[in-house]
Amino acid sequence: MNTNPHIPSRGIQGLKENWRSDLLAAVSVSLVALPLALGIAVASEVSPMAGVLSAIIGGTVTTFFRGGHLAVNGPAAGLIAVILGALVALDGNINYVLAAIVVSGAIQIILGVLKMGRFAKLLPSSVLHGILAAIGVIIFAKQIHYALGTTSNATTVIRTLLDVFYKIPEANPFVFLVAVVGILVLVLYKRINQKFIQLIPAPMWVLLLAIPMVFGFDFFNEHSISFLGNSYGVGPELLINIPDNPLDSIMHPDFGMIGTKAFWLTVLSITMIASVETLASARAVDKLDPYKRTTNLNKDLIGVGLSTMVSGALGGLPIITVIVRSTVNVNNNAKTKWSNFYHGIFLILFVLLLAPVLRSIPLAALAAILLHTGFKLASPKVFMHAYNQGVEQLLFLSSTLIITLFTDLLIGIVGGVLITLVLHMLLARVGIIPFFKMIYKSGSKVYRLDNGRMMLK
Fold first, then answer.
1. Residue 233, SS3?
2. Contact 149, 169 (CB under 8 A)
3. Which of 68, 38, 6, 10 lies closest to 340, judged by CA?
4. Rounded CA gap, 189 and 123, in Å?
5. Greater confidence, 452 or 81?
6. For the chain, what are the domain ranges?
């Protein structure tokens, strides 16, 4: 039992002492997690249930092996681009992608056992923000077409974005209305100070307001609706596809491509993005923890690695520590890791009890949630924050963003790190060998002098 009354006990004792507060926090977390999990899966072009399954495993499995206290685990928007790239690289076969996810999880376990969690600090924050900004742009480019009710056959992110302007005349107003209402809810939610409204998280309000429109426009049956002299088609293809029996969504990995370069590049991409996001989010959650507890980053890698293996083996997505749901958890007065476990249990209940309701969710509503997420990842505030830290930080972020958008996430990370290192060496005016000797010294940083020159010390 914990002798400090101010810090919640761990383990079973912590469950006994704090189950009420953790349970209440988990309700809010699960209401946020459900629409996000569905949206992430749809945006990743996999079964919607794959996202929910991942969130369930993130709660019911990761909790027992990770090193954090108040973090929430599950699928993340930051991995959407990775899964989309994996599908392209592995012949569009989700079973090959699942195999890559399983292997990636195994590598994370090895990294945790080797105590490699501390190396998360070596990735420059500007490069990480550049990668996240690129992911935000990719999400926005893909989801804007779902919000408009249009399609794009473009093979690049830039072309997909440009297609928006060409496709606007083809936009379906009934689909667009669902998306606009959802975006307005997400934007205005914090400005509404009514307890009833604030009781339900914004993403869940998006779904609750979208479902009446689905029934009003009868998205369940294929037909056309006239508007301003034009006819627009609506039908079941505008809704997410949930099987009558959720267990029918379970799939298993196929390791048939394990001997190929494409497979291992996919594994490397998943491992790098998932590990960096997990460790960065874990450190961020520690700053939010009112009890100032510290996450064991190595155990966190083992926890998410193990649950990622389980998820991939059953048809789910990679699992990481997710900052948005973790923030909801902290803000709702969670005390221990059991809130993460409870949120997984609540998601199981949602799937069992609300499957018919889930089938009424329109893709446009999920697109609204993801558009909002994508915009936040690449908003002007992100670039302004980098600029305020120094023009060179904005350069690092922007170069990583551009490289990623025109290549892929893996090359974006490598390119961003190389540009950052080279520019730091130029600013510090030291050679390669002295630079790396100094950078390995604890606390070495680049400082700006009064005369404008840079110095590394």
1. strand
2. no
3. 68
4. 34
5. 81
6. 11-376, 407-456
